[in-house]
Design goal:
Blueprint lengths: L10 E3 L2 E8 L7 E9 L4 E2 L8 E14 L3 E4 L4 E4 L6 E16 L2 H6 L9
Antiparallel strand pairs: 1-2, 2-3, 3-8, 4-8, 5-6, 5-7, 5-8
Length: 121
Amino acid sequence: MIVTSIADPSRSQTGTRTRCLARRGMLYSECEAFDHLRLPPGGELGPRGREGIESAWFVLGGAGTARGASSRELRPGDLVLAPADASVTLVAGDEGLELLWLAVLPEAVTRALPARKPAVS
């Protein structure tokens, strides 16, 4: 179990505040990461560093735009799904953008991995 506060970010890059909630190895799954993000007004979260993973972003607060093959306005409650080969950029609006981000390995990768089973104690 991981207990954390979102008050202080784990790191800050170009004004984006990030709090890691879990990373691979902490979860019994093919999950790469589960993060809480706050983009400042006008801030962008581009595809760089996300090569080879599938992403799901859930909008908690603020507003913005998801840009990829097409553009879509974002509001609280929206969900953005991006397969591993998609190039998606999230851009925060005037209020900033607060998101939960779940990153997972694509099915082609997980099929090739050995089965993982919990240890019996």
